Amino acid sequence: MSAVKKIAVLTSGGDSQGMNAAVRAVVRSALYRGLEVFGVQRGYQGLLNEDLRQMDLRSVGDIIQRGGTILQTARCKEFLTPEGQQRGAEVLRKHGIDGLVVIGGDGSYQGANKLSKLGIKTMGLPGTIDNDIPFTDFTIGFDTAVSIVVDAINKLRDTMTSHERSSVVEVMGRHCGDIALYAGLASGAESILVPEVPFDIREISQRMKENFQNGKRHSIVLVAEGVGRGEDIARDITAHSGIEPRVTVLGHIQRGGAPTHNDRVLASQLGDFAVQKLEEGDSAKACGILRGELVTTDIDKVVSTKKAFNMDLYNLAIRLAQ
Ligand code: ADP
Ligand code: F6P
């Protein structure tokens, strides 16, 4: 006997590649289990506007390979208020919906938590390129974003090597350095500046100068946006070494394009898992994957915990990029 009969799914906050694959998994898994399923357009904003439609098998066809989200996404100020949250719960109840899957980052999770306190069963799926959600090794979209950064650095290296130049590359991640860390290790970046690790720009500039004199005539300095602007880092490097790095800000390109197979597989697993947990009567949980195992964690705990930074991986990246 299922604890829910009708569920809904929405995407919220910044989009990420693989959100469509997650929506597809939620819809098809719900239908497979004999549940009715609704898609909410534009996140919590669409919920307040009662912008919902019933989903069928065909409504999620041909989307597993697409970036963005067919449900679209939004940031909704009204939903931050108790009145907005109350109205959101009322809209769901009016449509007979007793379970909601929220695909988004930690802000979206907090919204789901509030709805659960108002009697709606909720499950959060980690949809963000930032990989900043604890209790999951990876978030949906992170793998694709890292691949985009690695591809960009490969291209930059070609021209930087020809000209014996250095490059500062600024990447996204909000307060989390994971995109810079993984892309830096995978592309052999000489310096990786992340908010989790203090650094001395004088030392970095000096090392770049020495490297240049010793025959290593180009280098990549990867800067996570949580550290500051790439332009400012480049200016400091010039001030301390005389080297004039070219600056590339990758920006929203990191959030688009076809999801990698890793993101599609993760999204499919987590989407199905979230529906299974709702059916079992679970609520106010975030779904994740830890060492290959699907897990749920209380949303309260997830939003009050900072994701641990992988210092071993960071030290490895620095050791190998001599
Ligand atoms: P993300 O989910 O990517 O972290 P945001 O922080 O912008 O993105 O959150 C997305 C939306 O979730 C917000 O626009 C708001 O509607 C809702 N939200 C965020 N924080 C809360 C909160 N504390 N309580 C209720 N809803 C929230
Ligand atoms: O959370 C995803 C993210 O792309 C962050 O990496 C970045 O800081 C932020 O969203 C950008 O937000 P916006 O799309 O509103 O410019």
Description:
- The chain is α/β, with parallel strands linked by helices and 322 residues long.
- It has two domains: 181 residues, Rossmann fold (3-Layer(aba) Sandwich); 115 residues, Rossmann fold (3-Layer(aba) Sandwich).
- It has eleven helices and eleven strands.
- A seven-stranded mixed beta sheet has the order 3-2-1-4-5-10-11, sandwiched between helices.
- β1, α1 and β2 form a beta-alpha-beta unit.
- α1 runs parallel beside α9, α5 packs across α6 and α7 crosses α8.
- The longest helix has 22 residues.
- It is elongated, with a radius of gyration of 22 Å.
- The model has no long low-confidence stretch (mean pLDDT 97).
- The structure holds adenosine-5'-diphosphate and 6-O-phosphono-beta-D-fructofuranose.
**Distance between the first and last residues' Cα:** 60 Å
CATH class of the largest domain: Alpha Beta
What sequence of helices (H) and strands (E) makes up the elements? EHEHEHEHEHEHEHEHEHEEHH
> Can you summarize the main beta sheet?
7 strands, mixed
The amount of beta strand, in percent, is 15-25%
Number of strands: 11
CATH topology-level fold name of the largest domain: Rossmann fold
The strand order across the widest sheet is 3-2-1-4-5-10-11
Shape: elongated
The poorly predicted ranges are none
Bound ligands, named by name, code or SMILES: adenosine-5'-diphosphate, 6-O-phosphono-beta-D-fructofuranose
Domain count: the total is: 2
Q: Average pLDDT, to the nearest integer?
A: 97
Rg (CA only): 22 Å
Number of helices: 11
Q: Structural class of the helices, strands and pairings?
A: alpha/beta
Helical residue percent?
40-55%
CATH architecture of the largest domain: 3-Layer(aba) Sandwich
